[in-house]
Design brief:
There is one protein chain. This protein is α/β, with parallel strands linked by helices. The chain has five helices and six strands; from the N terminus they run E-H-E-H-E-H-E-H-E-E-H. The strands form two sheets. A four-stranded parallel sheet has the order 2-1-3-4, sandwiched between helices. Strands 5-6 form a two-stranded antiparallel ribbon. It binds ligand DLZ. Ligand DLZ binds near residues 32, 64, 67, 88 and 89.
């Protein structure tokens, strides 16, 4: 099996759009907050590094990943933001709960993207164990929060260019 890991934070093939006027909402979970807090920090660091004003970043917290879909739908409706990043971490356990949560969030966010006017970035880690989560939250695979932020900027830019 290939050990290659996809990452696009280091070498961007496309220029990163100007994010100076963009407003973002980020929703994170209380569940596994030792991971989601690090992803949140990574996302905020990247957004501000790309010129987003801190006052234009709204952060919200929900209990668990399953709540992210409703929270994103409400934020899209009432939050006055141009794009949303949902951040959660689901760690496989001994019961099928993992699969139900992952499916629910994945399908819910996909549906939201098909119906909402603003992009919702899928920042859900679905991992087998703590180690895999730590690797993606500032460990040897970087901080995926930064990738979520860059994706959010690119998708808002995509929408703005079409809406002009
Ligand atoms: C119940 C549950 C379980 C078992 N595991 C996780 C998890 O790994 N990550 C996560 O974000 N949330 C988990 N939850 C909580 C659910 O997402 C949800 O909050 C509850 O089922 C209540 O709707």
């Amino acid at each position: 099996m290939s050990s290659h890991t996809f990452s696009y934070t280091a070498d961007q093939s496309l220029p990163i759009p100007d994010a100076g006027e963009m407003r973002f909402g980020i929703i994170t979970t209380e569940w596994n907050n030792h991971i989601t807090d690090k992803l949140l920090s990574g996302a905020i660091d990247e957004l501000t590094a790309q010129g987003v004003d801190k006052s234009n970043i709204t952060t919200k917290r929900v209990p668990g990943s399953f709540e992210l879909v409703y929270a994103a739908q409400q934020l899209a409706k009432y939050g006055h933001v141009n794009g949303i990043i949902i951040i959660g971490c689901v760690i496989r356990g001994d019961t099928p709960h993992f699969d139900y949560i992952c499916q629910g969030v994945t399908q819910g966010i996909a549906q939201l993207n098909a119906t909402s006017n603003i992009p919702v970035i899928f920042g859900l880690l679905t991992v087998n164990n703590e180690e895999q989560a730590e690797e993606r939250a500032g460990g040897k695979l970087g901080n995926k929060g930064r990738e979520f932020a860059l994706t959010a900027i690119k998708m808002v830019d995509y929408a703005w260019k079409l809406q002009k």
